Amino acid sequence: MAISPIEARPEPASFRDPANRVFHVGDEVLRGLDPQAAEHWRALTGSTFFPALVAARKVCATEDAPPALVPAATGTPWAAVLRHERIPFVSHPYEWSFSMLRDAALLHLEILNAALGEGFTTKDGSAYNLQWRGAEPVFIDIGSFEPVRDGEPWAGYRQFCQTVLYPLMLTAHLGVDFQPWLRARVDGIEADELRPLFNGARRLRPGVLTHLHLHGAMQQRNAAASTSDVRDQLRAAGFSRELLLATVRGIEKLVRKLDRRPPESHWSDYQRTCGYSARDRVAKEQFVAVAVAAGTRPRLVLDLGANDGRYSRLAAGHADYVVAVEQDPAVVDELYRQLRSEGQRRILPLVLDLADPSPGGGWRGVERAGFAERASADVVLALAVVHHLAIGRNVPLPEVIDWLAGLTAPGGAVVVEFVHPEDPMATRLLANKPAGLFPDYRRDAFETLLAARGRITDRLELPSGTRTLYRAVMGG
Question: I want to staple 162 with a disulfide (CB 3.0 to 4.6 A). Which of 106, 188, 190, 353 is the partner?
């Protein structure tokens, strides 16, 4: 039966380019194209580079779909409609580690280089044009491709600098995590914001003089000029497609040089220092495996506080997809590198502070959906997390349980570990707090709260006697 166009929901992040718009119809992801965009699409499918990139999984799989599937734009029917493969979990660049952002940048430049070789370019350079299949980046903005015009620079260069290159330079050259900077502004880091940090000898660090200082000066000089005026000036100066290719290859060479291997943090070796005995570890792994596998195979598992991904890997053996969330960018970066080397496509590592998760952002606060709006998991793993939130971050236990329930799809399960007050890790946290501040941090109180929000189906006290695992079906 045909799907009624009225059921199509516009994607809130897809409105800036009037030539095309993304819609959601059920589980399908569709894109409407205006006549010019449709013409570009037909030329794209007739090229050599584009089908090769799709076959290599570097560009999302895309095919023609019936135009009637999505509503007309401003009363004018779309000239064509495309159907895209569905990305298992949408993430944002400020949730990626350094190596993730760099690999996404290199893929974008590889695609642009291939496109230029056949007379195409990308009119956008935003990091948001890429997503992930596990540890594999994929380019998703099919509407960004258009024929290149001789004598014109890459239209996406400024976006690329602000959302990709400047964040990478900030971390590689100064050791400053880029995630809070990107999260603060959807359009990325402005050159004016970064230039004061790169004065003196820092101006000589790779890429800084050309892409930060000179680019910023050029922006200021041409601030009053129109885009067409700047293009005319470049053509008159002899700017050619060959020079454009050389510029893109130069940026790619720079990005490959940028690296950041941060020193080990407290969380880098958590599995060794967290105090589990061998018997505890075996019992916990067995409980988690059975809890994830119980019932219908989960489409999505959230592993909150994933650390080195031990339980994410275990869950991936019983689920379609796992999102491994960890606060420390260094730990996430190491996990990503491991998953990448394994060719893992079903575990997505993300940088996220559980007590301060990504909010909605951009236009009207919905252009980039917050983490809670994107997370509707069949299984939520919260292993050795509750005590860090309740004691370490002063979040009341009822709030913690409500939060876990809110991340769970209807009928989904929470697999949660309660660390007793007498456990060494909890004792260490409590020692830094005023006496008597957490009178309700008790196993019985936690169990009562969990039972009020769901149906506890399994529980296991670990052999050490200071930690208990629960599986609860929420809403039951």
Answer: 188
Alpha helices in 301-385 (DSSP H): 310-316, 329-342, 371-374
Length reported for the chain: 476
Neighbours of 196 (CB within 10 A): 7
Task: Give pLDDT tens digits for 4-44.
Answer: 444 788 899 888 888 999 999 988 999 999 999 999 999 99
Q: Could you tell me if 382 and 416 are in contact, meaning their C-beta atoms sit under 8 angstroms apart? A: yes
- Count of CB atoms situated within 10 Å of the CB of 198: 22
Phi and psi, residue 419, nearest 5°: -90, 115
DSSP bridge pairs for 232 = none
The kind and range of the H/E element at 258 are none
* C-alpha–C-alpha distance, residues 170 and 144, integer Å: 27
Give per-residue pLDDT as tens, 216-265.
666 665 555 445 544 554 454 445 778 888 999 999 999 999 998 766 66
C-alpha span between 61 and 59 (Å, rounded): 6
Cα 323 to Cα 9, 61, 82, 155, 315: the distances in Å are 25, 22, 27, 33, 10
- Return d(Cα 3, Cα 188) in angstroms, integer: 38
**Cα gap 399→138, rounded to integer Å:** 36
Sole residue written with tokens 């370019």: 121
Burial label for 145, CB within 10 Å (0-12, 13-18, 19+), is: buried
Taking the C-alpha atoms of residue 118 and residue 283, their distance in angstroms, rounded to an integer, is 57
Strand duo 145-147 + 120-122: pairing: antiparallel
- Residue 457, pLDDT score: 97
Task: Show the tokens assigned to 398.
Answer: 């009822």
Dist. CA 476–CA 465, nearest whole Å: 28
Q: Does 273 have pLDDT greater than 90?
A: no
Whole-structure pTM value: 0.92
State the pLDDT confidence band at 312, using cuts at 50, 70 and 90: very high
* Distance separating alpha carbons of residues 375 and 386, to the nearest angstrom: 18
Sign of CA dihedral 250, 254, 256, 257: positive
Q: What is the CA radius of gyration of the chain?
A: 25
* Strand pairing report for 322-326 and 301-304: parallel
Give ∠ CA 319-12-80 in degrees, rounded to 5: 90
Average pLDDT of the chain, as a whole number? 90
Question: Could you give the CA distance from residue 358 to residue 364 in angstroms, rounded to a whole number?
Answer: 15
Q: What is the DSSP letter of 414?
A: E
